[in-house]
């Protein structure tokens, strides 16, 4: 990225630290959702720090001493740190939803906050199950499966009904909405609906794989989640654009470089003299004149 783009990204990500305190804008919501798909990367920051703190002086990664890192820095022994790092994005979005409810008083913001609270509960049950190192049975395993199922259904329903605003009645294309931007890519909408649901339930792979295979599956699941977010962005921004059009927050009209002053009904409307070039540039800012 260029210098201005990097500074813009750093500045807006830093603002997420003040979620719940400052007014929430669309860019805050959008960036918060992006980070929610990076939970795997965030949680593994602990493993990176733990490895360099205890095994940085080793000569080779194949040293038997280095292999102890997989147990010393593992989730089973340090599950609380992994959990705290994992829920940071969801905590940010949770606080944003509460602030939005305070500002606009829309009940849907509380429903959205419940979605992120469910995600935090899901990760607690997941890491606690990994800490218990129990087989695919027992209370911790059942709680994890239950919260994972609720979290997946909750998140998918919100994606479809709120973020994408599809499944509308009387639409030309079933399960979509009356107004579409990508009209030449109709099959992609249906692919997104199906793939989004499948990736939401990718956690099921943890049930069928253990050990090294489980670590590989977790990496693949994290990669698919990032790809799901890329796909999600197209339809989320499309829906936001259509909402802005409905609220007359966007327009294709070009502002004229003239100013008019209406004094009173008796005097009528009189146009002022033509503005200077500098005034023209001010009036035409952001438009093609």
Let me know the largest β-sheet.
2 strands, antiparallel
Q: Using only CA atoms, what is the Rg?
A: 25 Å
Structural class of the helix and strand makeup? mainly alpha
Beta-strand percent range: under 5%
Unreliable sequence segments = 268-272, 277-289
Which H/E pattern describes the elements? Answer: HHHHHHHHHHHEEH
Strand order of the largest sheet: 1-2
What's the end-to-end separation, in Å? 30 Å
Continuous helix count: 12
Number of separate strands: 2
Please give the share of residues in helix: 55-70%
What is the average of the pLDDT values? 85
Give the overall shape, derived from the CA principal axes. Answer: globular
Question: Could you please describe the fold and organization of this structure?
Answer:
It is a single chain. It is globular and about 80 Å long. A two-stranded antiparallel sheet has the order 1-2. The protein is mainly alpha-helical. The chain contains twelve helices and two strands. The chain starts with a helix and ends in a 6-residue tail after the last helix. α2 runs antiparallel to α6 (79-104) and α8 packs antiparallel against α9 (186-200). It has helices spanning 3-15, 26-36, 39-43, 45-55, 69-72, 79-104, 107-132, 139-163, 186-200, 205-208, 211-246, 277-283; strands at 260-264, 268-271.
């Amino acid at each position: 990225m260029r210098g201005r783009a990097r500074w813009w990204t750093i500045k807006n990500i830093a603002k997420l630290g003040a979620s719940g305190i400052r007014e929430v804008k669309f860019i805050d919501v959008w960036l918060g959702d992006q980070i929610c798909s990076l939970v795997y990367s965030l949680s593994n920051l602990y493993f990176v720090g733990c490895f360099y703190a205890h095994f940085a002086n080793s000569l080779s990664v194949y040293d038997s001493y280095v292999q102890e890192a997989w147990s010393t820095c593992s989730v089973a022994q340090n599950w609380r740190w992994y959990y705290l790092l994992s829920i940071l994005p969801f905590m940010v979005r949770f606080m944003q939803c509460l602030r939005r409810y305070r500002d606009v008083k829309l009940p849907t913001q509380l429903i959205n906050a419940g979605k992120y609270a469910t995600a935090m509960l899901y990760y607690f049950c997941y890491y606690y199950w990994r800490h218990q190192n129990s087989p695919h049975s027992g209370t911790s395993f059942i709680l994890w499966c239950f919260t994972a199922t609720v979290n997946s259904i909750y998140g998918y329903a919100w994606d479809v009904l709120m973020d994408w605003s599809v499944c509308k009645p009387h639409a030309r294309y079933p399960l979509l909405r009356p107004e579409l931007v990508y009209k030449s890519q109709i099959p992609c909408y249906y692919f997104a609906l199906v793939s989004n649901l499948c990736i939401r339930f990718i956690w099921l792979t943890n049930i069928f794989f253990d050990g090294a295979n489980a670590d590989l599956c977790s990496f693949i699941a994290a990669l698919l989640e990032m790809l799901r977010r890329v796909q999600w962005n197209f339809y989320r921004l499309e829906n936001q654009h259509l909402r802005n059009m409905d609220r007359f927050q966007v327009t294709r009209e070009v502002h004229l470089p003239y100013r008019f002053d209406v004094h009173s009904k008796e005097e009528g409307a009189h146009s002022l003299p033509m503005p200077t070039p500098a005034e023209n540039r001010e009036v035409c800012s952001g438009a093609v004149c």
